[in-house]
Design goal:
heterotrimer, A alpha/beta (about 500), B mainly alpha (about 350), C mainly alpha (about 350), A: alpha/beta, Rossmann fold, 2 domains, 6-stranded mixed β-sheet, B: mainly alpha, 15 helices
Chain lengths: ~500, ~350, ~350
């Protein structure tokens, strides 16, 4: 028992009317790699904030190195060796790498005057610890996500650190960078530092962590060794539901393709891409982060129009130079970054749903037909089971899964023939993920043609009939979903 | 699906949705009561209200323009420059149209107003292009264009007032419909109604609010950001141009340096009216209430001769900060995630 | 995969100062070419003299903008400080030197700056709106409470200091002489102080940090609230100092004379490469930008352009300058996107 580096016992925490945590226990040993998993609203970020001192538990205590605390301040947590790396890495994009690294320790030592030489030495020592090669004078805003993360980790190591908490560390990392990160985590383990990382990505939980803790609706539902865990148990613990794996089987495929790309290219990103999509079909496009898959998606929607080649819809060649063109050709796009590209967070759910079809809801002189509008909103809220008491509430009041449903509703309201989705279930809880996939299957069976762009290989394999693998801007493989598996797809990607 | 049981609960629901507006109304009521008690006769007179109603449309119209731009997440600091340049150019035209006897042809008034609107549209187009095509931050673009327009005013007038045109213009505008309603007010009301209509009833309005919330999401939703911005800034400058024409009537002259205080004053009014400088929020009713409140405060203050009328500046600033602080205390109960992307 | 923009452009696109300097230099050469008078000793002294007050204001505006805020109240703040100081000293029939007026004005400036700091730093209200409001409040106090009339006579100490010259420059051609005011030294001292502050103290770096990301600053351990309050107090003091210098140089205290300068000052700061969103910019760039605006406002006459055309040029300058900056940002973003692809392929 005294082996534990950190223990949290009987933690209760509530906010205005919401019980965020109920009787949660947690423990982690020195050098242990532990994954904390849970859906949105499960309480995992609250638990992290309690451990790092940002929140105070209503009852229960935290035990660190044998000492018990009912209340811990952020400074005490830091002094106890707890470092948190947030999703934004707490960096200053407008300053150099050197300053980003050295600030914390300069402040901790109460320094008032800046000695640039000393800061440089501190920075050099910090990056040496994890063998991170970077230009200390570069502005952090210009670095890649992985490099920013390395800075955050280097910085975290500067203070007699015993435990590093990472919040969803692998979002926006390429496969190679994730590998690099895991290597570093293993190195940290060797020197006795414990790592607690928050994730809902199944494969990571299995690949790197030794132990896990799963929260659901503020309660502890499972914890233990990762070797005792499998896919189904994981999903069950996370959601409380059993999921039957369900493969997509195309029905009602149209004879002629609804959407074709003929030797399309965009200078600097991809070239000579050709494919055809039939009604009722779901095509999956996958590849590494830099394979050009995102730019391909954006070119289909007119955000980054193609420089060579052509698109055809229903056999006729079309120009897609802007999103408006795409929409007018009944092609919609569910974007990668839901929060900044897909939704107007502070606006009402209602407005978010109708915005792309809004011109169709106008009477003369551009006046909105209020009855039609109400009808549309009610229809889509119902069809997509968007969980909200009032469609005039702001979007940001909803969970990730519900927000993605709003984005889907927006496009479905436009009466599309073709829907392109980029990372449709990123950051979406397992339950909603399953439901959204179901919706996509249904859309296909109703006659839409769908293109899913994703690097979530299980998602691609289960939900597509045809898979295109991209590498360095070209299509390197065209596979049938029922004749291939994740391993072979991966081998084409790398 | 809102449960509306009794009137008190209904009011509470209405209140929490438009807290800001109700606060303004509350302050107006308090002040009017105060004036009723202390200076009833002097304040509650038709003359007083009519004077108020004739004066504020100058900057009231400009405020409408600034409001539109703010809703899209921008701002228009060129309103005064546009107003003055328009009024100066139209003053020159009026001089040419004025006959030897000091009369104006029948078509003169409609003509100058039509031209004023066209000029406003042109200036607004310029602003809109700077903001949408060149991606210059609106605060800087309109700061520059405002300076440019004012500069042109100074250059063509050499700093002097343009005034030797027929008095008919001022007399017509400075008149009262049915001997009751000042014509200036009618201009303001018409524009306010037009903008209210656009914002709350049309597709354009919805698009504007959403564009102001996130221009990225707007682009990804198929909105034509460029066109929306051009339309917004054109409308704003049209309002400003009309404001200039009102000033032309009120002062019976045009000068490059009229109304310089109005620039920041309009921003103040708009913010007081509940428009968020970050964009995506704001109602005409708020702006109108803010104008009414500030106007009432000012004229009321004038009825206390022993208190310097310069104090009005203090009251304006004080009310603005007071309302902001009140908002801070109530909004913190429902904290929204702070998105630090936009400029202040 | 080929990149469409050469990488060397990245370095140039990032730094604004070389551009401004080039434009400045070109303008000076142009004026010299047209009039032969630009680089004459008395003209240079005139420009330096004209730079003092806007320069000080610009330093204050620079600090605020770097921190991610914006301040439109500084002319009103300065006017109130110096007007109150002058009136008080006149009332008590002060006969002493310049030190007391400066100290009083600084004290008032600190108080007024703290007013801004309270609402912006502690209540976290948006800086633009707060300073709009405080600008009104300061104006109201000055014009209302102090019953502002132009004070044509100012205390003798201020008067003599305003006319004291460091040296006098004489133009051999035109015979004109220009006095270099002692106040220029004050300007240089403040400039040096702020330079040291921003470059060599944690306080200065914290302003950059807050402008870059307030949440990160808070997490790193910076006391964001205290820093902002101190910042606005400092800016209030610098603005008041500028006000005192202005009154001394003009030999009278006019209540509304400085009002309306805020936009041009901010424009100068932005022209010098300071991002309006905060976190980026150098004092050097800020001074170059302000110098550019000052020269355009003062020396156009040497180009044969009548003074009534001044605003046209400053307006056009702001538009062109910010247009170029905006274009640079777009260029940099485009480079950033291709950089990611190139790096990964490697």
């Amino acid at each position: 028992m005294s082996e534990s580096l950190l223990k949290a016992e009987g933690i209760y925490k509530s906010f205005v009317g919401v019980q965020a945590l109920k009787n949660v226990n947690f423990s982690i040993k020195s050098g242990e790699i532990h994954c904390l998993a849970g859906e949105n609203g499960s309480g995992k970020s609250t638990l992290i904030k309690i451990i790092s001192g940002v929140y105070t538990p209503d009852s229960g205590y935290i035990e660190f190195d044998g000492k018990q605390y009912t209340k811990i301040t952020p400074i005490e947590a830091i002094n106890n060796g707890i470092q948190v790396i947030y999703q934004d890495f707490s960096i200053f994009p407008n300053l150099t790498v050197m300053e980003n690294l050295a600030f914390n320790s300069e402040l901790a030592e109460g320094r008032k005057i800046v000695n640039w030489k000393r800061m440089r030495t501190i920075a050099e020592e910090a990056i040496a610890k994890i063998n991170f090669k970077v230009d200390l004078d570069a502005y952090v805003g210009n670095l890649t996500v992985a490099e920013k993360q390395m800075i955050a980790i280097s910085r975290a190591l500067m203070f007699n650190t015993k435990l590093i908490i990472m919040d969803e560390p692998t979002t926006a990392l390429t496969k190679k960078e994730v590998r690099n990160l895991f290597n570093i985590i293993l190195k940290l383990k060797e020197i006795g530092i414990a790592i607690l990382f928050v994730s809902h990505k199944l494969n990571e939980v299995f690949e790197i962590s030794e132990n896990f803790t799963i929260l659901r609706s503020g309660e502890l539902v499972a914890s233990g060794s990762t070797s005792d865990l499998d896919d189904r148990k994981f999903s069950y613990y996370m959601t409380g539901r059993e999921f039957i794996p369900r493969r997509f089987k195309p029905v009602n495929l149209s004879e002629k393709p609804i959407f074709e790309a003929k030797h399309i290219g965009l200078s600097g990103f991809f070239e000579d891409i050709s494919f055809s999509l039939r009604r009722g079909e779901i095509i999956g496009i996958t590849g590494l982060l830099d394979s050009g898959r995102t730019e391909l998606a954006l070119s289909m929607f007119g955000i980054k129009p193609i420089s060579h080649g052509s698109f055809s819809i229903d056999g006729k060649q079309v120009q897609i130079q802007s999103p408006r063109d795409a929409i007018e050709h009944n092609l919609g796009y569910v974007p990668e970054d839901r929060l900044t590209e897909g939704l107007f967070l502070s606006q009402s759910i209602a407005d978010n749903i109708i915005i792309s079809e809004i011109d169709r809801l106008a009477k003369r002189a551009g006046v909105v037909d209020q009855d039609k509008r109400k009808e549309e909103i009610e229809r889509w809220v119902q069809e997509l089971s968007i969980a909200t008491p009032d469609s005039n509430n702001a979007c940001q009041t909803l969970s990730g899964g519900n927000q993605q449903r709003i984005v889907l509703a927006k496009w479905l309201a436009c009466n599309l023939d073709i829907l392109v989705l980029n990372g449709p279930t990123v950051g979406v809880d397992i339950g909603s993920k399953h439901d959204i996939h179901g919706i996509l299957h249904e859309l296909a069976s109703k006659g839409l043609g769908l293109i899913i762009i994703s690097d979530d290989l299980p998602e691609i394999v289960e939900n597509c009939s045809k898979i295109l693998v991209m590498k360095a801007g070209r299509i390197v493989a065209e596979l049938k979903a029922d004749e291939t598996d994740e391993k072979s797809i991966l081998s084409y990607m790398l | 699906m809102m449960a509306s049981r009794n009137p008190l609960q209904q009011f509470q629901q209405m209140y929490s949705k438009d807290r800001h507006l109700w606060r303004l109304i509350f302050m107006i009521v308090i002040w009017m009561l105060f004036m009723a008690i202390t200076r009833f006769n002097k304040f509650y007179s038709m003359i007083n209200f009519q004077t108020m109603a004739a004066q504020f449309p100058e900057f009231g119209l400009m405020s409408l323009g600034v409001m539109l731009c703010m809703i899209t997440g921008g701002i228009d600091l060129s309103v005064v420059g546009v107003a003055n340049l328009t009024s100066i150019l139209m003053a020159f035209l009026l001089i040419n149209l004025t006959s030897a006897t000091g009369a104006l042809p029948v078509y003169a008034l409609p003509l100058v107003f039509l031209l004023a609107i066209l000029l406003g549209a042109a200036f607004g187009l310029f602003n809109g292009l700077l903001v949408s095509k060149f991606h210059i931050p609106p605060i800087l673009a309109t700061m520059g264009s405002g300076e440019l327009f004012t500069g042109i005013c100074l250059a063509i007038t050499n700093g002097n007032a343009v005034s030797k045109f027929s008095r008919t213009y001022a007399n017509t505008i400075n008149n009262r419909l049915f001997d009751l309603i000042p014509i200036q007010l009618i201009f303001f009301v018409i524009m306010a109604v037009v903008i209210w209509f656009l914002l709350s009833k049309t597709v354009f309005g919805t698009k504007l609010y959403l564009l102001g919330t996130s221009d990225t999401a707007a682009r990804f939703s198929g909105l034509n950001n460029t066109r929306l911005l051009l339309q917004t800034y054109m409308l704003s400058s049209i309002c400003a141009a009309l404001g200039g024409m009102i000033m032309l009537a009120n002062y019976n002259s045009a000068r490059a340096d009229y109304g310089t205080v109005y620039t920041l004053q309009c921003v103040l009014i708009v913010v007081l009216g509940g428009v968020s400088p970050v964009g995506g929020k704001g109602k005409i009713s708020g702006v109108v209430l803010a104008i009414i409140l500030l106007r009432l405060l000012e004229t009321g203050l004038n009825r206390f001769p022993r208190i310097s009328s310069y104090y009005i500046s203090l009251i304006w600033g004080g009310v603005l900060i007071l309302v902001m602080v009140l908002n801070y205390f109530t909004e913190n109960r429902h904290p929204l995630p702070r998105d630090a992307r936009r400029a202040k | 995969m080929k990149t469409t923009t050469p990488i060397s452009l990245k370095k140039l696109a990032g730094r604004n100062e070389p551009y401004i300097f080039l434009v400045l230099f070109a303008l000076c050469l142009l004026i010299e070419f047209r009039s032969g008078q630009f680089f004459s000793s008395n003209n240079l002294v005139d420009i330096a003299s004209a730079l003092i007050v806007p320069g000080l204001f610009a330093i204050g505006a620079f600090l605020v903008i770097i921190s991610g805020g914006i301040d439109v109240s500084f002319p009103a703040l300065a006017s109130l400080s110096v007007y109150a100081t002058t009136k008080y000293l006149l009332d008590i029939q002060y006969e002493g030197g310049i030190w007391l007026p400066i100290v009083i004005a600084l004290a008032i400036g600190a108080l007024l700056g703290a007013f801004n700091g309270l609402f912006i730093g502690y209540f976290r209200l948006p800086a633009l709106i707060v300073t709009l409001g405080s600008s009104s409040v300061f104006k109201g106090i000055m014009q209302g409470a102090l019953n502002s009339k132009q004070l044509t006579i100012i205390p003798v100490g201020m008067r003599t200091w305003g006319t004291t010259a460091l040296f006098t420059a004489r133009n051999p051609v035109s015979g004109l002489t220009s006095r270099m005011p002692v106040a220029f030294i004050v300007f240089l001292i403040v400039l040096g102080f702020v330079f040291f502050l921003m470059r060599y103290t944690m306080f200065g770096r914290s302003i950059y940090a807050i402008g870059g990301s307030e949440t990160s600053a808070h997490r790193a351990g910076f006391n964001v609230i205290r820093t902002k309050v101190v910042l606005y107090i400092m800016v209030g003091m610098i603005a008041s100092l500028a006000g005192v210098i202005r009154v001394c140089m003009m030999q009278q205290a006019h209540p509304t004379n400085m009002l309306g300068m805020e936009m041009n000052i901010i424009a100068g700061v932005v022209l010098g490469g300071t991002a309006i969103t905060g976190g980026r910019g150098t004092l050097l760039g800020c001074m170059l930008g302000t110098l550019l605006i000052v020269i355009v406002e003062n020396s156009l006459i040497l180009l044969g352009i009548p003074t009534s055309w001044k605003s046209v040029f400053t307006g056009a300058l702001i538009i062109i300058g910010t247009g170029i900056s905006a274009y640079q940002v777009i260029l940099m973003n485009r480079i950033k996107k291709t950089k990611h692809s190139v790096k990964e392929a490697a």
